[in-house]
Each structure stands twice: as C-alpha cells, then as structure tokens.
Amino acid sequence: MKKNILGFFCIFSLFLFSGCIMKQDIINCQNRITTLEINNAKYITKEKEYDRKINSLLNQFENDFKVISKSYRDKYARIKTEINTLKNKTRVLTGKFQELEYKFPQYGQNTPETQKEKIQIIDNAISKNYQRLLALEKYIGFEKTKQNLNQKTKEEKKNTNQSEQELYKHAKENLDSGDNDKARTIFEQFLTLYPESDNVDNAMFWIADSYYKDEWYEKSILEYQKVIEKYPNGNKVAAALLKQGCAFAKLGEKANAKLILKELIKKYPDSNEIKIAKEKLKNLQ
Whose CA is closest to 225, among 244, 253, 206? Predict the structure, then answer.
C-alpha cells in the first residue's frame, strides 16, 4: 500500500513539475513575441519617416527644377526683348545721324568719329547679346540654323570611321585647343556611338566644362549635375561638384557656392579637389 502511495506521489510530482516548465516556456515565448512586435513597430515608424523624407526631397527637387526652368525661359524672353529694343534704338540713332549729316554737312564733317563710335558700341553690344541669344535658343531647344545643321552633319560623317579611343581623343584635343563648340559636338557623338564606354562620365564632364569655359555658367551647372546624378560612383563627381561651386560663385550666388563646396569637403575628404575647394570656400567667407 505504501509503495502504491509513493508511486502515485512521484507521478503527481512529475506532472506538476512538467506543468511549471511548460508554463514558464509559454511566458518566455510571449515575452519574446512582445519584444518583436515592439521592434517591428519601431521599424515601421522609421520606414514611414524615411518615406516622408524621401517624398519631401523629391518634391523639393521637382519644385527647384521648375523654378530653374522658368528662370531660364524668363531670362531668354528678357534678353530677346532687350535685343529688339537695342536694334530699334540703333535704327533710330542711325536715321538721326544721317539726317543731321544731310541737313548740316559741317556737323557731319566736324564730328563724324564720335557718332560712329557710339553706333559701333551699340552694334557691338547687340552682337554680343545676339550670340548669347543663339546659345539660349540652342539650349532651350528652338530651331537651329541650316548652317549649323550642315556643319554638324559634316562633322558627324567625318568622325563615324574613328574608333572609340580616337574619337574621345579627338574631342579632348579640340577642347584643349579652345574649340569648345566643336569639342561638344564630338563628345555628344561619342556618347551616341559608345554609350557603354568607360569614358562616358568623362565625356559628359568635358561637355559641362566646355560650357564653363564659354562662361555659360548656368548651363554648365546643369551639365555637371547630370554627371553627379548619373554616375555617383564615377571619378568625376568631386570635380563636378567643385566646378559647380565655382560656377555659382561666378554668378554671384555665394550661398549656393558655399553649400556645394561644403558638400564636396564632407563627402570627398580624400579627393584631389579638396584643397582647391577649401581655398574657394575661404575666399567666399
């Protein structure tokens, strides 16, 4: 009888002990599930926060691009109006000068050089603005002249037989010699013929640099940005940022110049451009 009671007690104790262990396991599992749910909620919150920041940056970029685009079109319209005004003034001045020469021959004989010099100054100003207008028309996408199209076609036919390295070298030689427009044409053809080349980002950078050399700083800034965005891991990103900062400085936009130079110093502290960037930034203070 005692043996039966003792056996029953042992079985009962075993079940009781097993129940305690299972209960503790359940509690541990519940705690781990709760911890995972809390961490998951944190990750979801962070993900939403990152999504908001990304959307905010995208919206800001789109708005900035619209403002820049509108700015260039406004500048184009303003320059075109100014050129038309100057042309009208030149015609009026020329007419008055001829009238004075006819009515007062002695006046025309006494001071011809002064009047002609003034007219020449106005003509030079119109010519300079007209060249600027042509460049703006080319950038905005207005119709090109027949002469420009013929020249480009001849150049493209000439360069078709060149290899990848030869064409790139040919374009760079033209850029180094100061023929920026011809260099751009050849580099653009290079990008069309060899879009998978290792020198694509370099070619895009030199196109931007050609505009910088032409002192068309607004256009160069946009072209440098293409290099930065399309080839963020390329070897020309630091140089593109440096030239962007210099271009903004040339335009008198010191705040933007400082911002870009600081970004260059922060992101590429070991680049070859870092020393120049620091000197430029110091001069802008």
Answer: 244
Contact 133/163 with Cβ under 8 angstroms?
A: no
**d(C-alpha 204, C-alpha 276), whole Å:** 22
Distant-in-sequence, close-in-space partners of 220: CB < 8 Å, separation ≥ 6: 208, 209, 211, 212, 243, 244, 247
Cβ count near 156 (within 10 Å): 15
How far is 181 from 166, CA to CA, in rounded Å?
18
Residues of the chain with confidence (pLDDT) below 50:
106-110, 142-150, 153
Q: Is the separation of the CB atoms in 173 and 140 below 8 Å?
A: no
pTM for the predicted model, two decimal places: 0.50
Q: Quick one: which of 56, 222, 10, 121 has its CA closest to 129?
A: 121
SS (H, E, C) 128-146: HHHHHHHHHHHHHCCCCCH
Give residues with Cβ within 8 angstroms of 168, minimum separation 6.
190, 197, 199, 202, 203
